[in-house]
Specification:
The complex is a heterotrimer of chains A (313), B (269) and C (469). Chain B contains five helices and 15 strands. Chain B has 269 residues and is α+β, with helices and mostly antiparallel strands. The chains are: A mainly alpha (313), B alpha+beta (269), C alpha+beta (469). Chains in contact: A-C, B-C.
């Protein structure tokens, strides 16, 4: 496979995953902003959404205040934000178009259809209800793309590169949301358990589509350390860091099989996966969740670079 | 006249380049006024130089290097015997009929002003016309000896009323071709009569050859307002600079390229 | 009155169109309309689009497809095909001649300046030993018809002719939207075009190539107007669609960058113009090409299809010499006619053209896409005067031809079924093992009433072309 084709598949999948993630954090922000007491205690949900999306600094260069209007515009529709949903879909479609022949027709039609629909929308005049529908639509597009890749792609290099993109991005997103919410919700000496806290923690789970999963796994009230454990260490939870890394290791092994060569990317993925497998949540909290996540994000980035170095240029 | 030339080009990269590909036109050939005694191209990296001849009869070397390459030096070095032939070039490798050298290229396309300028220089015969063009360019254009990297067109240089030898040559070509006189670009070296026996220069030299019936190809050096002489070492010809450029190259990776060119020319009787 | 391919002047129906005429009679206009809409949807959803240069609004447009097929009888086609083959042989021989011995110049058939001063002539190609001596591997020859027996070549396209994907898609559309009509006709298949193209390309791999040659299609990228076609053809041939940055040259051998390391490439079907294929040999500012590609080509390590410099054979002045060249090289009478052409570079012919501007079509020698053209009978006085000035300023840049009465075919338009002017672009493949032509080609139709301009960029549409037994 051409390195450029693999590169486009990788980034196409990353951008669709990112679009889905941004839609989820916006959905959560909308939900939290409706709660009584929202905005109190400095917990500005809209600011938090920006930080979760990793776009806070870029936002401040353009807007003076983070509120429902500005954040929605910036994260969903803005042409000035390369990670806005609109730009993610545009970039994904651009990548898809440059490698059309490497996509199945279902995948192409999903992404091209979504892009055409997006062109037809008048994004600036969406009213509140329509905004939620729009976010649902984005999640749906991502789901359909993922599903069509899973169902229709040959299990050859192209498929594995597309998985790599999805899971490197997904691991990044899960780690980010944990990190942001940790800051917002666990200031030192605060007690956990109030209604607002409950909603905040539930919001984390909603952002990664795992509220129900939590109850199935733990059959317990929401507890921050269990939430962290679920999202970091539980292999049965599909968005957990460990689950992402298991898939990454598997996909990289498949690639190594077809080329007959193991390289830095395989070694890096294995190293991170092993570390996660051997971790305990208590240990993580001892070291500091924030520090743990920082390290993880750096390692995840390093894996991304290793994949690019090894295969994509 | 025996002339010794050493032309060293050094590239350094802030981050090593992944790969480098170059076409080198750095090897002179013989004609009646020029005999190459010895000539070689040295690299300071392991790489292959493949020699071939281009459509104009120039010797070309292709160089490809697989990285990482942090720095590269290409050195052409050799010795020639030259004769003064009053600028007339005979016995050179000729691959095209004269008519080809009326072609207009992107770099020699004249502007309306340049056409007007050329037309006013038409003399009673071709040789007189060419000397008019040579004298007028020498008079009207300022010869800028500091090499530039950018490629300027004849029209742009004409509007600026100045340029490096390459630009003045392009203006000469544009004038000659406007007047339906076949003309071509010559890349090479010049031992400057007004300098020391050993000279350090920042670049090679360029001049033009125009076709005069009964005489054949005659060299005109518009930067110095003279015909080509024994001090002119002729390396490559083309329709314009691009066809005779000593080095045309490209690389992947290696941002932050620095280029250093040193030409030393010595004359021993 | 133009020759209509379906209806004779006395209201009868020509034999090849019997089935179509009946079908048109039997099918309600509403149905035709619905199917026309469906055709558009098929194109739109499939992303079968093209870009119009200089049109920022409509980044991607589709070409209107007319569902009424254009029909040629097998016998008509056979004659046409023979003529096309002869034409393409002439193009190839001419190129081998001007980049080689120059016999046509020595014999005085072609004036020298038409070669040496031709902007599309590439001096760099002189003396290059082109693999198998073939220059134009893929040619698109534009043909028009003016009566039952006469086909004229309107234009040779020897550079990177496009449109074949539209030919293939219009057949797809016919199969889906007018199956009942296809059932009642024995239509010669064209679906094997990609296989034929691949076989042709493989046959011209450099001779020392022993194993199965690797072919790649080089595209300028997705902003190119024909990008859809590039990706479509690569896909159908099962070859990689590469951009310049996917290829590199080491020691005069061309490789693709793949996830498994470098892979050697033997044949590059390039859809990039000469100027841009190699910044070290041609335009230095090109970022679309491959540095060193031309050196690899000269060294005989890769085949470029088409060869570099084929444009020297297809401009509109050289066009006018094609019949002479066929006679000169092969001693054969040209099977296809040439449209009478006035070469404005010659003062007597220029004078005639200037005196008859309102009757003639004036074209730029190197123009394409229907741009830079004057259609005398349809032009305003101001347009004519504008061209008069242009002709006087730069006569050698123009040729003129009589306005041909292009044949018409029944076409579904707003008002129902009406005759519209058409042309035909068959695609001719030249390999080391012979010439291949799939029966038919791309029929382009001028959808505006009375218009003779069929170019997609100027309101033209396409039709499926049927060669029937």
């Amino acid at each position: 496979m051409l390195s450029r084709t693999a590169d486009s598949l990788y980034w196409l999948s990353r951008y669709l995953e990112r679009a889905d993630y941004v839609a989820r954090i916006l959905g959560v922000a909308i939900r939290l902003s409706h709660l009584p007491g929202a905005g109190a205690g400095g917990a500005n949900e809209w600011r938090s959404a920006l930080i979760s999306a990793g776009c806070s600094d870029a936002f401040d260069k353009i807007y003076s205040e983070a509120n429902a209007e500005t954040v929605m515009e910036f994260l969903a529709f803005s042409d000035k934000n390369p990670s806005s949903i609109k730009q993610c879909l545009g970039t994904a479609r651009f990548n898809a178009r440059s490698i059309r022949t490497a996509l199945t027709s279902t995948m192409w039609e999903t992404i091209n259809g979504a892009w055409l629909d997006l062109q037809a929308m008048d994004l600036n005049s969406l009213v509140k209800r329509e905004r939620s529908l729009f976010l649902e639509w984005v999640k749906d597009v991502s789901l359909r793309f993922d599903g069509s890749a899973y169902r229709t792609m040959l299990r050859d290099e192209g498929f594995w590169f597309s998985r790599l993109g999805t899971y490197v991005e997904r691991a990044d997103n899960t780690a980010r949301i944990l990190d942001v919410k940790y800051h917002v919700l666990l200031p030192e000496n605060a007690t956990v358990g109030g209604g607002l806290d409950y909603e905040q923690w539930a919001a984390v789970l909603r952002a990664v589509n795992s509220l129900t999963a939590y109850h199935w796994v733990y059959r317990d009230n929401l507890k921050p350390w269990l939430i962290a454990e679920l999202l970091i260490l539980k292999p049965q939870m599909p968005r957990s860091l460990i689950s992402c890394y298991q898939t990454l290791v598997e996909s990289l092994d498949k690639l190594a099989e077809s080329s007959g060569r193991q390289g830095p990317a395989q070694r890096k993925a294995r190293e991170v996966a092993l570390k996660l497998e051997q971790s305990k949540i208590e240990k993580i909290f001892d070291v500091g969740l924030h520090e743990f996540i920082e390290t993880f994000l750096a390692e995840n980035n390093a894996l991304g670079s290793a994949i690019v170095e090894q295969y994509l240029i | 006249m025996r002339i010794h030339v050493r032309h060293v080009t050094t590239y350094t990269y802030d981050t090593p380049a992944h790969s480098i590909t170059q076409l080198l036109r750095l090897t002179p050939r013989n004609h009646q006024g020029q005999t190459v005694r010895k000539w070689r191209i040295d690299l300071d990296c392991d790489g292959q130089l493949k020699a071939s001849e281009d459509a104009f009869g120039n010797t070309v070397h292709t160089l490809s290097l697989a990285g990482p390459v942090g720095a590269l030096t290409v050195a052409a070095d050799g010795e020639l015997d030259t004769l003064d032939t009053n600028g007339i070039v005979r016995g050179a490798v000729e691959r095209f009929p004269v008519g080809l050298y009326l072609r207009e290229t992107d770099l020699t396309k004249p502007s309306a002003e340049l056409i007007e300028y050329a037309k006013a220089l038409e003399g009673p015969d071709i040789l007189t016309t060419l000397h008019n063009v040579l004298a007028r360019i020498y008079r009207d254009m300022r010869f800028d000896k500091t090499p530039t990297q950018a490629t300027t067109t004849a029209a742009e240089a004409f509007a600026l009323k100045s340029g490096v030898c390459q630009d003045l040559t392009h203006i000469f070509l544009a004038c000659a071709r406007t007047l339906k006189i076949p003309a071509r670009y010559v890349g090479g070296y010049l031992w400057r009569a007004d300098g020391d026996a050993r000279q350090q220069q920042e670049a090679g030299h360029a001049w033009a050859e125009a076709y005069v019936p009964d005489l054949g190809w005659v060299g005109f050096d518009p930067a110095n307002g003279i015909s080509a002489m024994a001090a002119h070492v002729r390396v490559a010809i083309g329709l314009d600079y691009l066809g005779a450029a000593p080095v045309r190259g490209s690389r992947t990776g290696g941002p932050g390229e620095r280029l250093d060119v040193a030409v030393s020319i010595a004359q021993n009787q | 009155m133009a020759f209509d391919e379906m209806t004779t002047s006395d209201g009868g129906v020509r034999a090849p169109y019997a089935g179509i005429a009946q079908w048109l009679k039997d099918t309600p206009a509403e149905t035709l309309k619905t199917r026309g809409k469906e055709a558009e949807l098929l194109y739109r959803r499939g992303g079968i689009t093209f870009a119009v240069y200089g049109d920022l609004q409509g980044e991607e447009r589709i070409i209107p497809h007319d569902i009424v097929p254009r029909v040629l009888a097998r016998k008509e086609w056979n004659t046409l095909a023979k003529g096309l083959e002869q034409r393409v042989r002439t193009l190839n021989r001419y190129l081998a001649d001007i980049y080689g011995p120059g016999e046509c110049l020595k014999a005085g058939i072609i004036p020298e300046d038409l070669v040496w001063q031709n902007p599309a002539f590439r001096p760099e190609m002189v003396g290059v030993d082109v693999p198998h001596g073939i220059y134009v591997h893929i040619a698109g020859v534009d043909v028009v018809r003016i009566d039952p027996d006469t086909f004229y070549v309107l234009e040779d396209n020897a550079r990177t002719p496009s449109g074949v994907s539209y030919m293939l898609h219009s057949r797809d559309v016919s199969l889906r939207l007018v199956p009942e009509l296809m059932d009642t006709h024995r239509v010669a298949p064209i679906e094997n075009y990609p296989d034929q193209l691949l076989a042709s390309l493989r046959s011209v791999a450099p001779r020392r190539q022993s194993s199965e040659p690797t072919v790649a299609l080089l595209t300028p990228g997705q902003f190119n107007s024909a990008y859809y076609e590039h990706s479509f053809l690569a896909d159908k041939m099962g070859v990689e669609l590469v951009e310049g940055r996917d290829l590199f040259v080491r020691d005069e051998v061309v490789y693709m960058r793949t996830t498994q390391g470098p892979q050697r490439v033997d044949v590059v079907y390039r859809r990039i113009d000469d100027d841009f294929i190699d910044p070290l040999s041609f335009r230095p500012d090109s970022t679309l090409g491959v540095p060193g590609l031309f050196a690899a080509y000269k060294a005989g390590n890769v085949t470029l299809a088409n060869a570099v410099g084929t444009g020297a054979a297809d401009d509109k002045v050289i066009y006018s010499y094609m019949p002479d060249l066929t006679k000169f090289y092969f001693g054969e009478e040209p099977i296809l006619k040439n449209v009478q052409t006035w070469r404005c570079r010659r003062p007597d012919e220029l004078r005639y053209v200037l005196d008859h501007l309102s009757e003639l079509v004036v074209k730029e020698v190197h123009g394409s896409g229907g741009y830079g053209m004057l259609v005398g009978p349809h032009a305003t006085a101001a347009q004519i005067e504008d061209f008069r000035a242009r002709l006087n300023a730069n006569p050698s840049n123009y040729i003129a031809q009589p306005t041909l009465s292009l044949s018409t075919c029944p076409t579904f338009v707003e008002s129902g079924i009406a005759p519209r002017h058409v042309d035909l672009r068959p695609f001719v493949l030249s390999g080391s093992d012979g010439i291949r032509i799939v029966p038919g080609g791309l029929t382009r139709v001028a959808l505006r009433e009375g218009s003779l301009v069929v170019n997609s960029s100027q309101g033209g549409g396409t039709k499926d072309t049927w060669v029937i037994e």
